[in-house]
Amino acid sequence: MKNTQSSYSSTCPSKSRSTTLPNSIKYCAQCGTLVEEKIPSGETLLRAVCPSCQTIHYENPKIVAGCIPEWEDKILLCRRAIEPRIGLWTFPAGFMELGESTEEAAARETLEEAHADIIIHTLFGIFSLPHVSQVYVVYRAQLQNLNFKPGPESLEVELVSLTDIPWEHLAFPVIHESLARYVKDIQAATSQSHSAVVPTKQHPSFYSS
Amino acid sequence: MKNTQSSYSSTCPSKSRSTTLPNSIKYCAQCGTLVEEKIPSGETLLRAVCPSCQTIHYENPKIVAGCIPEWEDKILLCRRAIEPRIGLWTFPAGFMELGESTEEAAARETLEEAHADIIIHTLFGIFSLPHVSQVYVVYRAQLQNLNFKPGPESLEVELVSLTDIPWEHLAFPVIHESLARYVKDIQAATSQSHSAVVPTKQHPSFYSS
Prior knowledge:
Two copies of one chain form a homodimer.
Chain A: H1 13-16, E1 36-38, E2 47-49, E3 56-57, E4 62-71, E5 74-80, E6 89-90, E7 93-95, H2 102-114, E8 118-129, E9 134-143, E10 154-161, H3 173-188, E11 194-197
């Protein structure tokens, strides 16, 4: 679904951990009082704390769940119809909602973005993006039929051969990293679950974030 | 670190997705105005939306990162000194912070709870707990030395043989599920990355949540 949570902001939460909070919380969500920044008793990090009702407002990384849908020797990619990175390519993925499993979230996003029915089969990898406090959970999935078509967030949805992946027109570094590892696995006829931090030092220069 | 985000609450976000929001957001964190529950344009789920500054307050599942620290044929377990489930056993795990990778979060929690130095080696599994909107990311790790001792959140920290795991005194169903799969993998001399939803239908009756 459309979800305007920003995907690649320029803020860097990691740099602010010890000295100041990301200023996303100014007022208490429970009682509306202006919060204070303090280190609660027994903790070591600054938190937004309500001086009135004492609620501690924790902020945590968000999960983006997605999958690489496979059909014979091709994979399904979507060209983004929304910002950020409108017009660039990705596999189906989006922010996980409350009450879902990661598998359900990946399947829902695939249905929404590509009207594509899939069956999740293996965990492909988990990719941490500490600079934006996101964690991608990516599955390999089996496309069930060819009745896919663009959802409201996609301009195009296409089955792409691994030799035709639009490497210079991928939406995000994590998509590039995931697909590069995927192609390598397929070429080596291996199946593994990856765990990595993105961006890596080897990142292509055409990404601005 | 001590972090009072509740771990196993009795609320069930999944049941409230279509009709009402979990009532954790009453006031806008940006401007302090009382929020309204509405489905924003282009979306399908109810969100807390500020009628004054229009901020949409998304709520997302939280990541708990942890590891199973290995030393020869034993693993390191901690007995919890804090609620929930005080006095029961777990492997080191806790809520991921902004600006971290999942690996860093798992290593930090292990240091905090058990003063234990580890090196992460493989992704053991990802376990979704949709009833509490949490996702556990669990690694296998190599304990680097025997200088472990209880941190402030632990009553005891012990190296335990797989035949001595206190199955009926584990803190959470996800710990039970993870360790059951771990023991099975070790017995079969396999290494794989799991992905599952917890609790499963086979869950032991001695857990209340």
